[in-house]
Amino acid sequence: MHVIHLSVECFPLAKVGGLADVVGALPRYQRKLGVNAWVVAPFYDKVFTQERDFDVIHAGTIMQGAELLQYEILKEAGDPLGFPLYLIRIPGKLDREEVYCYPDEAEQWIAFQHAFLHWMKTAAIIPDVVNCHDHHVGLVPFLMKHAIDFNHLSNVKTLFTIHNGQYQGWMPWSKGILLPAFDTWRWGLLDWDGLINPFAAAVKCCDAFSTVSTGYLQELYTQANGLESLFQAESQKGYGIVNGIDGEYWNPEIDSLIAKPYKKSTVRSGKKANKKEFCRSVGLPDNLPLLAFIGRFATEKGADLLPDIIEKIFSNTENKISIFILGSGDDILQENLEELRARYPDLLAAFFGYNEALAHQVYASADLLLMPSRVEPCGLNQLYAMKYGTIPVVRGVGGLKDTVIDVEEDGGYGFVFHGLHVDTAAQAVLRALDVVSNPTVLQKIRQREMSLDFSWDKSAKEYIQLYNQL
What is the model's pTM? Predict the structure, then answer.
């Protein structure tokens, strides 16, 4: 079976969020199971592409409105990522440093999708399945069925994998002239509330759609940023598959990015050694429980609540806990956290930005990980944390609800709170501190969570079963 994963993020090429981790791991695990899985992504002017060897395997031209665009297909030599990686480079559009936040983003993603389909046609590549990831490539299922130049691909099955339904790629109909020529009788498949909505078009036109957890699939029927009725109408096409994690990269036994590797049987001494080194490097005491937050400073992550949650925790623990924040995004939130750090210099530390190595060190060192998310389609941070023996404190939403069982339930290994309130989040942390203060109970929970299997092996099989079903 030949499957092409189409995405604008892929670790380690370009990472902004969990989308990159999924696309950078799932195809490798599928190939181990006999699937000929490729990844096709935009070209970025990053260290990754500067230091790797690529061969130009194809070149062509497409018309985007009145603009003639030249594109190249580059293939990474030797497939060192464990799967063939193909990049589409278009001068002036797909050759930039960052993934997002350019004013002509709609034009970028239209060009990416058009060039991909043009390459498929001119190179006579007909896969069994095209797995489209998020709205950036949401026009592909429509174009494969209804674009005049690409209807030879109409029988190729499409799976639309939803990593975050809050972002839908809305664009005005004035952008319609930029699309490849299509059957205009089908314009309604592109439309939602008077705009071209690539996300909605993908849900309408794909053969199936999947979400990155079963809990998030159920939430989309009632909370889908305006598309609730669409998901209800297309519910027969929906499947929930919980994300996995890459056990070859996120593994405390072999992790070269942490101070001291450890395994389940040595988790107590291993985390103690990592905490000592980490706290020394960031100026925190190593004799207190360490709570961490890792993520974007976005309202969907509940990051706007962090300052009040931190204040509440400190006021209720008599300063018997330290906190580390790793994230970026909202300047005002960052300023508020800076003010808190100035008030609690010995208890609160932060790194504003994203640092992959630092994230590994935090997971290996922290006792608790806080995720007060408003929306969490799956969540990978809690899975990484549990792999490293760090106990998650999460709001029971989306994939967090699917992957974290509260300690008060049989077999529980985390702390789950409900309701998006500062008090409920802080109270969950206080509950967790009682466990952290009991070495025997803490060791039991750590070993239980480190025994859980959230690897891609299981999830990759579920994707393959869905491909076969299609």
Answer: 0.89
